[in-house]
Structures are given as structure tokens and as C-alpha cells.
Automatic annotation (TrEMBL):
UniProt pathway annotation: Carbohydrate biosynthesis; gluconeogenesis; Carbohydrate degradation; glycolysis; D-glyceraldehyde 3-phosphate from glycerone phosphate: step 1/1
Organism of this sequence: Caenorhabditis remanei (Caenorhabditis vulgaris)
The protein's name in its UniProt record: Triosephosphate isomerase
Gene: Cre-tpi-1
Gene Ontology BP annotations: cell redox homeostasis; determination of adult lifespan; gluconeogenesis; glyceraldehyde-3-phosphate biosynthetic process; glycerol catabolic process; glycolytic process
Gene Ontology cellular-component terms listed: cytosol
Isomerase recorded as keyword: yes
Family statement drawn from the similarity comment of this UniProt entry: Belongs to the triosephosphate isomerase family.
Subunit structure: Homodimer.
Length: 247
């Protein structure tokens, strides 16, 4: 099957109205590319503004959400709120949520189930730390993180898996196309064995970690790399080159 290329831009905790306007301008001025799904994730205070100013071809995602629709959970946002803003996507399991904020596989799985049940699609992030890679645990860590949602029996139609080796995030140390392809192939095999061949074939597995306009084309040539989740480079006009890396 042909999987549609998917490019996400995770703005993380960056920006103000002036810089959001700048990003919106270069995205709106870019030529439409019907062969790529483009989804950007501004910080929560700018979600509605970005949604109302971006052209229709650029979708907006939240960077996080909680596991219940509403209640006494100070500081959290729910999938119901994301939906109320007219948005379709959320990023869950990002390594910064896992390792800075201590989110566990179990919590991320609960959040993923609730987002999907609420009608929000999930960019589900996984990835090993440097010490785990060096200890030969890359496969185990990524499989364990995936298994947490396999165990919940989720429907995979609305999930994009983002493989983001923690050692490559924001460090300038991109995984080589071969390193990334190796793990993406393992992930696809895992989905084939644990879920189904059809899900393995149709699920988009995107790569994140120091993706730039200079390395995106080579990464994007690999058979199991179906797009990117871009951090720092998604804040700059070169993001448009990454969107078009495979075109
Ligand atoms: O969500 C995006 C990733 O954390 C990658 O960030 P980066 O492109 O700045 O390395």
C-alpha cells in the first residue's frame, strides 16, 4: 500500500504572536502539496489562533492532552477541548513528556485510548535514550512503549507512530537514514506480529530527531520512513523544504 507522507511540526514551548504570524505566513505562502499531510503543533495558548489563520491544507495539533474529558486537573487540557477548537490531532508520548515530566507507558496508553475514543487522532511518539541504545536495548524499549497501546486494543486507523531516538532530539545528531530505517522496519514487523499485517502495512511511521532541510530528502527515501516529526526546524521557513522532501 502507498502510505501518504506525513510531516508534523512540533513547536514545543516556543513562540509569541509575532513569531506565530511569521510561521503562518511562510506556511500559507507555500505551494499546496496534495501528497503530504501537514500538521503543526503550537503551544496550547496559540492553538485557536493558528487554526484560524492557517490555510486549510495545514492542520493543527495539540502537543498533549489528559486522559479524561474534564474536571479538577489544573493545567491540563482534554481531547474534548481539542475537538471543540475544531482540531483533529494530538501528540502523545513525546520523550519530553516521558523524561522531563515523568509520564509512564501506562499513563500515555490511557491518554491515547481516551483521545482516540474522543475522535482525536494521535501522533504516538516512542524512542530510546542514548544509554539504552548503547546497552543494546533499542528494540526492547521501542517495543515496550508500543506494547502499552497494543495491550489496550486500540484501533490503529487514527494513529501515526513517531520514532524519535532521544539522543537525536535537539542535538543535531540525526540518526543516519540506515539507523532510522532499521528501527522503522522493526516497528513495522512488530505491528505485523502483534496487531496485523494490514495495520503494519497501512500505519505511517515517521522519524523525528534533528531533521533539517539538508537531511530530510535522504531520510525520506527509505522504504519505512513515511514522514517526519520536526522540532526546531519547523519554526523556520526551511520547514517547507522538509514538507516537500519526497516530492
Ligand atoms: O517533536 C519533535 C522532536 O522532538 C524533534 O525535535 P528536533 O527536530 O528539534 O530535534
Amino acid at each position: 500500500m502507498t502510505r501518504k507522507f506525513f510531516v508534523g511540526g512540533n513547536w514545543k514551548m516556543n513562540g509569541d504572536f509575532a513569531s506565530v504570524d511569521g510561521i503562518v505566513t511562510f506556511l500559507n505562502q507555500s505551494a499546496d502539496n496534495a501528497s503530504v499531510d501537514v500538521v503543526v503543533a503550537p503551544p496550547a495558548p496559540y492553538l485557536a489562533y493558528a487554526k484560524s489563520h492557517l490555510k486549510a491544507g495545514v492542520l493543527v495539533a495539540a502537543q498533549n492532552c489528559y486522559k479524561v474529558p474534564k474536571g479538577a486537573f489544573t493545567g491540563e487540557i482534554s481531547p474534548a477541548m481539542i475537538k471543540d477548537l475544531g482540531l483533529e490531532w494530538v501528540i502523545l508520548g513525546h520523550s519530553e513528556r516521558r523524561h522531563v515530566f515523568g509520564e509512564t507507558d501506562a499513563l500515555i496508553a490511557e491518554k491515547t485510548v481516551h483521545a482516540l475514543e474522543s475522535g482525536i487522532k494521535v501522533i504516538f511518539c516512542i524512542g530510546e535514550k542514548l544509554e539504552e541504545r548503547e546497552a543494546g536495548q533499542t528494540k526492547d524499549v521501542n517495543f515496550r512503549q508500543l506494547q502499552a497501546i497494543v495491550d489496550k486494543g486500540v484501533s490503529w486507523d487514527n494513529i501515526v507512530v513517531a520514532y524519535e531516538p532521544v539522543w537525536a532530539i535537539g542535538t543535531g545528531k540525526t540518526a543516519s537514514p540506515e539507523q532510522a530505517q532499521e528501527v522503522h522496519e522493526w516497528i513495522r514487523e512488530f505491528l505485523k506480529e502483534k496487531v496485523s499485517p494490514a495495520v503494519a502495512d497501512s500505519t505511517r511511521i515517521i522519524y523525528g530527531g534533528s531533521v533539517t532541510a539538508d537531511n530530510a530528502a535522504e531520510l525520506g527515501k527509505k522504504a519505512d520512513i513515511d514522514g517526519f516529526l520536526v522540532g526546531g526546524a519547523s519554526l523556520k521557513p526551511d520547514f517547507v523544504k522538509i514538507i516537500n522532501a519526497r516530492s
